[in-house]
Amino acid sequence: FLALAAASGLTTACGTAPPEPDPAPPVDVGTPLRVPPLLHPDPGPDGVRHYELTLQAGETEILPGKQTPTWGFNGPFLGPTLRAARGDRVRMSIRNTLGEASTVHWHGLRLPAAMDGGPHRPVDPGAEWTPEWEIDQPAATAWYHPHPHGKTSLHLYHGLAGVFVIDDGPDAGLPSEYGVDDVPLILQDKMFAEDGSFSGDPLKGPFGILGDHVLVNGVYDPGFAVLTERVRFRVLNASNARMYTLELSDRRHFQVVGNDRGLLGTPAEVDQVPLTPGERVEIVVAFTPGEQVVLRTVDNGLDIGKGDFDLLRLVTASELRPTPAPGEQIVPFTAITPAADARVRHFTLNARDSINGRTMDMARIDEVVPTGAVEIWEVENSASSHNFHIHEVSFQILDVAGTPPPAHSAGYKDTVFVPTRSTVRLAVQFGRYADPGAPYMYHCHLLRHEDAGMMGQFVIVEPGTEDTVSRTLLLAH
Ligand code: C2O
Ligand code: CU
User: Fold this and answer.
1) So what CATH class is 38-167?
2) Cα distance between residue 260 and residue 247, in whole Å
3) Each residue of 261-287: pLDDT tens digit?
4) Hey, which end of the chain has fewer CB within 10 Å, N or C?
5) Ranges for the Plastocyanin-like domain (predicted)?
6) Nearest ligand, CA of residue 446?
7) Are 235 and 187 in contact (CB under 8 A)?
8) What is the ipTM of this complex?
């Protein structure tokens, strides 16, 4: 039968149809990596791209033979990759079929505060919310996740997270074929009970969850078939608290080409890159035919970065499609430069539940910022492990404990690791959407700390009106 099949194949190839190139050789990768489906709807007659996202509960086989109760968008676990370009008008129809209220926050998106999906925008079970805005920011790997007051850690731990890719005109030929040489990797660490359900309390102990299984796109111990000479990975840390130190198992060098909020001007060559919760990094890895190498994380000695874990086995085909190397200049890059008299604000991260000695209060506005401002935010970590995320803005790290950042983290960001007992200074670029009644958040993105109240609120207002803004919000309920 095999001989017959081969013979008939030969006959076809010699017949009238032109010979087809050999299909890519099959690559055995073990459990295959799941690549989240792409959601990129065409613009409707009104010119708006209309995305539909349903929060739902389901079950996923993560460990062999066991069903894990999970939550996802448009599926049982995690969410599709949303794609939009600068200048697009987008409308999101958010439907919640869970048994409890949630929210959807666009982490890394520049948009009006009313569309931001923070704790002030709960979507009740059975309800729908349809934010709409125009994409107006450089190409980046952003993401989306719930942000319900005090419950973000639980909703993320159940699996509500997805990647949001922003395109913006040409770059220097970075790999861009989705799922082939441009691949999102969502990292989440989990603990499992005997019956396969997620265990551990995201609100307990100093950090909540520090799991002993790391999933990539919801898959445990996955492999990926590499078919091209270079692959760009958009890595998102969607973990509750774990910090990763990414490297390749043979310690080969790779290139960092993007940070949270955009592409770097020039690729930065590294052999390791750190990633704390909420951060994203875009990397380009070069491969040779017929090899296997593992993307892994190694123990960095910190309480949130303990342990070595293999993340993704990369198995290359015996022939690889050529991919050009990233150019010397990826995109033109403009630094965020505060004026000499720029406003400086100081934030101290205390213990695990407050900033500047205050715990999050939904009714309190902590900071008022004029539109378009470029400010210096100094974030001091007085204890424990923390990072710091600011909604809406894009920032650059000026220095960490007085030292300028390495090239691989010198780009546009929105989340930054703040080492214990040190200060990080940020040059922060605010947007132009003014709304004195709708706050944005800033907080530690270790979700146990965020939920405990290590969070504050700011509003962006018309310049000159700062002193007239009420510091007390009338809450809807
Ligand atoms: Cu990723 Cu305020 O969140
Ligand atoms: Cu923290």
Assistant:
1) mainly beta
2) 18
3) 999 999 999 999 999 999 999 999 999
4) C
5) 56-169, 345-461
6) 2
7) yes
8) 0.98
